[in-house]
Design a protein that fits this description.
Blueprint (H helix, E strand, L loop, with lengths): L3 H8 L2 H4 L6 E4 L2 E5 L1 H8 L4 E6 L4 E4 L1 H7 L3 H4 L4 H5 L17 H6 L4 E5 L5 E13 L2 E10 L2 H4 L3 H14 L3 E6 L4 E4 L1 H7 L3 H4 L12 H15 L8 E7 L5 E13 L2 E10 L1 H19 L3 E6 L4 E4 L1 H7 L3 H4 L14 H12 L4 E8 L5 E12 L5 E10 L1 H24 L2 E5 L5 E4 L2 H6 L3 H4 L4 H4 L2 H10 L10 E9 L5 E12 L5 E10 L4 H15 L4 E6 L7 E4 L1 H7 L3 H4 L14 H13 L3 E8 L5 E12 L5 E10 L1 H22 L6 E3 L2 E8 L7 E8 L2 E9 L4 H21 L8 H19 L3 E9 L4 E7 L4 E4 L6 E4 L16 E5 L5 E5 L1 H4 L10 H11 L5 H16 L8 E8 L1
Antiparallel strand pairs: 1-2, 3-4, 3-7, 5-6, 6-7, 8-9, 8-12, 10-11, 11-12, 13-14, 13-17, 15-16, 16-17, 18-19, 18-22, 20-21, 21-22, 23-24, 23-27, 25-26, 26-27, 28-29, 29-38, 30-31, 31-32, 32-33, 33-36, 34-35, 34-37, 37-38
Helix pairs in contact: 27-28
């Protein structure tokens, strides 16, 4: 461009040459702008030109300079351009504080070349020339810049310095250069970010400013010792040290120090790496490792070849295998062969596709015992996303599966009973619209089933209850759990209010999505107040929990450091009275010495302990305490604490003592049944009753009088002592009723006997919330006339001598105990020699095998028909044998009763 001010001087009119104010406009704060002529002239130059005032603030920026910097003149005017663009110049710019320039800086920065950061963030190099101007008291500075292209920078030492600085600016580790007395000569942007300082704040400062105590005080002495002796401590090696940020916080970092010599001058280059994240990761991995080891779920890791590489302790507890027994082996050693092939196929398809699989499987323990587990298999990927291992977790759900199967059986039985007694059964779609309704809805709400199909259950509630459930129910996609005995407040079709007790469960498809809901409602309007009281008592009972105590094993006498409220309730001691003391205070004169020695031995060995011992409450009353004692160990395996779980099992011990009494009750109950078959000239009758528990609710009897044979089979709901008592009462009532009419001309028919029994037993059955099903028949031996009536019992099976199959006998009649006055239908039938009749309770057809399959009426009929040549007694024995063979190891879930009548 040439000397710009010569050019300006040549073109400038004489009046402007003699008057600087005509070229610049001054204000209160100094030079503000230049005139239009000078501006137009400078804009015509291809070279970048800036006009600065004596403080280094921008007065003018030509168009070439705007293109070079990326900023407009408006954005930079009045601002210190060197500070804004971070231009490290060899000579001090106007308005910038003079600071010492170290030899290290001279190594990187030339006196006539600069680097600056454009508005977009890119780094640009340029050659510059700064010319001061002074004309009649107006002081300006003319800055001219020529951009250095990359190819030019490759030709000299300046290019190497530029590249080195670019490297220092871009690496993520902090770099700090100090001299041999600790003065900071150079640091890169990463070091600025790491310590929170600006470069200007640290250049020329002692590096110990970046160190916390005691390193801050010791560092200068270390450098002096090295200068005097030449003995190194950290130079040439790396180690973990502590750094201190500008805000005073400290952090861990890795420091490596190298030595650099420039002639006779010695410099030290320190490279720092922030270890904060690594420390956090190490802590996270430690927590993760502890969580895996202490997880209650079994965890297994296998490589891609299927070899087990890791199992946790929960896995060993669940399967019975030790760690060394499974590591290196294939997980198929757990296979039981019981998991369906479809499940196994989906499992492999899922994990081979690199996806997570979850499902229920049945595996086998080392002992051979089968167990159900909810298993999740997840692929483990490396940083590149490649699957390297598989992680499998198992949660033991054996008990849940058993409970579920028992629940399904109970629900099916309850459905049948509910249909008999008129409870409202329904099904809803996922949005709560009825898709099925039993006829009982008419009796409860006054609506016919077809009238509520398509309605939402909320539409039938009272406005208050509808508002309550709208607020209480979570979003539909989160509703997937069963509900039990929810109280609903309905509006009857005629307007009056109805309370029901609602129970329901979701039905899922193969993908685990809810496809519908199934449930039932019981009208409890008349009983709601009593039910509310009962429900409150149940909540109070359910709120009770076991006592928990934690004792410190590191102190003498194992003092308690924590007790829960339940322990206070069990023992009678307050929390304050138990803390700091040993639970020996619960022992008394009759506490078993063997139990105390077992506890002492567990404490000596640092092992688990399970013992039942007699303890004493604060008031001196004894109770049986089931104590589970478990040690808690630290990382070195040292026992630091003991956790004790204490349960008051006094009632359980009392129940065990009463078990013998129940056995006696069982023998008494069975003694009320016929002792042997009834063999008559024209008929033979035999029966059997096998209770599912100690006492049962099944009953059968047969007796002969005045040329007639009566047979009765009954089933009282439930298997409790209450059911057995009702059965005994029913038998006594039946015997008394028969005796009152025996030998008279007004002897009652089978239907009349059922009606009389219902009237006599109704109040007791209603109070006990029990009911009875019964099949009663009278057989006239002379005329071979069979008369029978049914109170909601299973239909009798009739096998004619001339037929190969069975037929069912039934008569209309409601179960006993539902209504005080019930009509029972009586039917008659002529039997022929060789005909046989089988009466049974539902425990026979509802017996299940290990696969959950029911014995069923069809199988019973086929077995009964196959034994037509045998006597009734022998036929019953063979049927019982068939039942036991069918069930295998599965216990009978209900009482088994059968009676056979064979006509001669």
């Amino acid at each position: 461009m040439g000397e710009v001010f010569l050019t300006l001087d040549w073109y400038m009119p004489q009046e402007k040459k003699s008057n600087p104010e005509s070229m610049v406009v001054e204000g209160m704060s100094g030079v503000r702008s230049i005139d239009r002529f000078t501006r137009s002239l400078l804009d015509s130059f291809d070279e970048a030109v800036c006009v600065l005032d004596e403080a280094g603030c921008l007065v003018f920026l030509n168009r070439a300079a705007e293109d070079l910097f990326g900023y407009s003149e408006h954005e930079l005017r009045g601002r210190p351009i060197f500070s804004v663009l971070e231009m490290p110049l060899g000579l001090t710019p106007p308005g910038r504080e003079q600071k010492p320039i170290t030899r290290a800086e001279e190594r990187f920065f030339s006196a006539n070349e600069i680097r600056f950061r454009r508005k977009g963030g890119t780094i640009v190099g340029a050659r510059y020339k700064l010319t001061p101007l002074n004309n009649d008291g107006v002081r300006l500075n003319l800055l001219r810049l020529t951009r250095i292209e990359p190819r030019e920078r490759c030709e000299g030492a300046l290019d190497a310095e530029f590249n080195l600085q670019a490297i220092l600016d871009t690496i993520t580790d902090g770099v700090i250069v100090i001299d041999d007395v600790g003065t900071i000569q150079l640091l890169n942007p990463a070091a600025e970010r790491l310590f929170g300082y600006k470069r200007e704040e640290l250049i020329g400062e002692n590096v110990n400013r970046l160190m916390p105590s005691p390193y801050h005080e010791e560092h200068d002495g270390y450098l002096a010792h090295y200068r005097e002796t030449g003995i190194r401590k950290i130079i040439g090696i790396g180690r973990e040290v502590a750094g201190q940020r500008k805000d005073g916080t400290t952090f861990s970092m890795y420091l490596s120090v190298g030595e650099l010599k420039q002639g006779n001058r010695r410099l030290f280059v320190g490279i720092t790496h922030d270890l904060t994240r690594r420390k956090q990761n190490e802590e996270y991995l430690s927590i993760l490792s502890g969580a895996v080891e202490q997880s209650p779920n079994a965890i297994l890791i296998a490589d891609l070849d299927g070899r087990i590489t890791f199992v946790n302790r929960a896995f060993c507890r669940l399967t019975g295998y030790e760690i060394e027994e499974v590591v290196g082996r294939n997980p198929r050693l757990l296979q039981s062969g019981q998991t369906p092939l479809g499940v196994c196929k989906r499992l492999w398809e899922t994990i081979l596709a690199g996806k997570e699989w979850q499902g229920e499987i049945q595996d086998r323990k080392k002992s051979g015992e089968l167990y159900w587990a909810l298993e999740t298999i997840t692929p483990i990927r490396d940083a590149s996303g490649k699957v390297t291992r598989y992680l499998a977790t198992q949660r033991d759900i054996t008990e849940q599966k058993r409970d579920k199967e028992a629940l399904q059986e109970s629900e099916e039985r309850f459905r049948q009973v509910a249909e008999m007694v008129g409870e409202w059964l329904w099904e809803q779609d996922p949005e709560g619209r009825y898709i099925y309704s039993s006829g009982a809805v008419y009796a409860i709400l006054g609506w016919k089933p077809e009238e509520i199909i398509g309605k939402r259950y909320l539409d039938l509630l009272t406005p208050e209850d509808r508002e309550h459930w709208i607020e209480a129910i979570p979003p539909i996609e989160r509703i997937n759990e069963s509900f039990y005995k929810l109280i609903n407040h309905y509006r009857h079709k005629d307007g009056h209010e109805v309370f029901t007790e609602s129970t329901g469960a979701p039905i899922f498809d193969d993908q685990g999505r809810v496809i519908k809901w199934r449930g039932m409602d019981l009208d409890i309007t008349a009983r709601k107040q009593a039910e509310d009281i009962l429900r409150q008592r149940e909540r109070a009972i359910e709120a009770a929990s076991v006592g928990i105590v934690i004792a410190d094993a590191r102190q003498p006498h194992y003092p308690n450091i924590y007790v829960n409220p339940a322990l206070s309730r069990i023992t009678g001691y307050t929390r304050e009275e138990l803390l700091g003391r040993n639970l020996k205070i619960l022992q008394g004169p009759e506490t078993e010495e063997a139990a105390k020695e077992k506890i002492r031995e567990a404490l000596r060995q640092g092992s688990n302990c399970e013992v039942v011992l007699r303890n004493y409450r604060k008031d001196g009353t004894p109770f049986w305490n089931e104590l589970l004692l478990s040690p808690v160990r630290d990382e070195q395996g040292i026992v630091t604490h003991y956790i004790g779980i204490q349960t008051d099992v006094t009632e359980r011990r009392r129940a065990e003592e009463e078990r013998h009494e129940l056995e006696i009750a069982k023998h008494i109950q069975l003694s009320l049944l016929p002792k042997k078959p009834l063999r008559l000239p024209r008929a033979e009758i035999a029966g059997v009753c096998v209770p599912a528990t100690h006492v049962g609710g099944d009953y059968f009897d047969y007796f002969h009088y005045d040329g007639n044979a009566d047979i009765v089979v009954a089933d009282v709901s439930g298997h409790s002592v209450g059911a057995a008592l009702i059965m005994t009462e029913m038998r006594s009532t039946l015997k008394a009723e028969i005796r009152t009419t025996s030998g008279s001309s007004s002897r009652k028919s089978a239907a009349e006997i059922l009606r009389a029994l219902n009237q006599l037993l109704y109040e007791d059955l209603s109070a006990a919330e029990l009911f009875i099903t019964m099949f009663y028949l009278k057989y006239d031996l002379g005329r071979r006339l069979l008369r029978y009536a049914n109170a909601g019992h299973n239909r009798a099976l009739l096998q004619r001598q001339r037929d190969q199959t069975c037929s069912e006998l039934d008569a209309d009649g409601l179960i006993l105990g539902v209504k005080p006055d019930v009509f029972f239908e009586e039917r008659t039938l002529i039997l022929e020699p060789g005909d046989r009749l089988l009466l049974y309770t539902d425990g026979v057809i509802e017996a299940q095998n290990e696969q959950g399959e029911f014995f069923g009426i069809s199988r019973l009929c086929n077995r009964f028909s196959a034994d037509r040549s045998e006597s009734p007694e022998m036929t019953i024995r063979e049927l019982m044998s068939d039942l036991r063979t069918f069930c295998g190891k599965t216990e009978f879930a209900d009482d088994i009763t059968m009676v056979i009548l064979q006509v001669r």
